[in-house]
Amino acid sequence: MSVSRQKKKLNDHNPRKRNPSGIDKTTMFLSIAAVLLLVLVVLFMNHNFVESLFPGNTPAVRNIVTPEIERIDNSGAQENPEEPLVNLGVPEQTVESPQDNPPEETPEDATEVNATARLFFIRVSDEGKIIIKSVLRPVPSSGSPLSISIRTLLEGPRPNELSNDILSLIPEGSRLIGARIEGGVAFLDFNEQFRFNALGIEGYKSQVEQIVYTATEFPTVRKVQFLVEGQRIEYLGGEGFWVGGPLGREDF
Questions:
Q1: What gap in Å lies between CA 14 and CA 8, rounded to an integer?
Q2: Average pLDDT, rounded, for the chain
Q3: How many CA atoms does the CB half-sphere of 247 hold within 13 Å?
Q4: Domain segments of the chain: what residues?
Q5: Which of 7, 20, 27, 192 keeps 20 to 30 A from 166, CA to CA?
Q6: C-alpha distance from residue 214 to each of 72, 130, 157, 197, 222 (Å)
Q7: What is the 3-state secondary structure of the chain?
Q8: What percentage of the chain carries pLDDT values higher than 70?
Q9: Rounded to the nearest 5 degrees, what angle is found at the Cα of 199, between the Cα atoms of 196 and 204?
Q10: Comparison of pLDDT for 165 and 4, the residue scoring more
Q11: What is the pTM of this model?
């Protein structure tokens, strides 16, 4: 067999030689298919394009939309009248003190007790003689100084004063109803309990003396006119002690 025939025979058994363009067509077809698939994927990712092709079959994610707020034009509507303001008051002690500077503690009612009054009580000596005795007492500075002093006197001696044999002979339950000063005379009006003293004439004399001495501590008062329930009376305890006119320290 000649050489030319052997080459021809080998070429007949080699598929590449028989169809040299087969591989190129397959590769081209696969490339075109890949490009088309990529284009379809890109198009399907575009929601607007999908909606135009398949109306009503849009992905569920398109249903998640931001709701629009409807705005109503009230320009022509009648405006509601404004509601009246309600005064809720101002809470008590609403300002807090700084933690590093706490407020100083003050005694109770310290802002009111900033005056001193001289009150007159009595002391009984070893011989049984009644002696007038004065004490100094802190009192509020507001109000009428004369009324405050007399009302404080009616409260009686304090425990530390009782321990020093300081007593009061003013009847228990006595109360000052009113007080005024006219021409150096203090008109002091007491309730009905002031009229009766269980210690007799000495008791009446001492209770009047306590009131007169306490009232005349004020420079504007020289004498005291006693009233009971707004009325001037002649005696305490019936025919006990005369109080029909103004009395001063010189009358004892």
A1: 10
A2: 76
A3: 21
A4: 3-53, 113-251
A5: 192
A6: 81, 17, 14, 19, 11
A7: CCHHHHHHHHHHHCHHHHCCCHHHHHHHHHHHHHHHHHHHHHHHHCHHHHHHHCCCCCCHHHHCCCCCCCCCCCCCCCCCCCCCCCCCCCCCCCCCCCCCCCCCCCCCCCCCEEEEEEEEEEEECCCCCEEEEEEEEEEECCCCHHHHHHHHHHCCCCHHHHCCCCECCCCCCCCEEEEEEECCEEEEEECHHHHCCCCHHHHHHHHHHHHHHHHCCCCCCCEEEEEECCEECCEECCCCEECCCCECHHHC
A8: 62
A9: 55
A10: 165
A11: 0.56
Is residue 169 within 8 A of residue 122, CB to CB? The reply is yes
pLDDT in tens, 34-71: 888 887 776 666 655 555 655 555 444 444 444 444 44
